[in-house]
Amino acid sequence: MSGASFDVKFDGLEKLYSQFSTNKAQARTATATAMKATIAKAQQTSQSIVPVDTGYLRQNIVVKPVETNGDTVLGEYVASKADYASYVEYGTYKMAAQPYIRPAIAAVKPYFYSQVKLALQKVGND
After folding, report:
1. pTM score, two decimals?
2. Fewest Cβ atoms nearer than 10 Å: which of 6, 20, 22, 83?
3. 38 conformational bin, left if phi > 0, alpha if psi -120 to 50, beta if neither
4. Domain ranges across the chain
5. In Å, how far are 3, 22, 78 from 90, measured between CA atoms?
């Protein structure tokens, strides 16, 4: 199984909380909501750009549920369960790579940040 992820670390969280009139618990919930939306978008993006022969690879692109543990919000994006998924993503010495995971992750990073901002603004306005 082939997969990818991106890590996000926020510094200056106390300033962030006051800027958005929120607290730690609300910010964590807002971040988890943004992560869920981002992971779903990454899945859709990769499904739209993956090379298709039989459709098995595209149909088996899955994501793990977003987990929250203390101050950590973890969103794992997992690519296709197809045995050959990594060969398509990274290529082999006989076949050129046809990336569909890494471009999807790169495409959704800005979306994640915008979703966190929107979620925090909504929490601050409630």
Report:
1. 0.80
2. 83
3. alpha
4. 3-125
5. 11, 42, 15
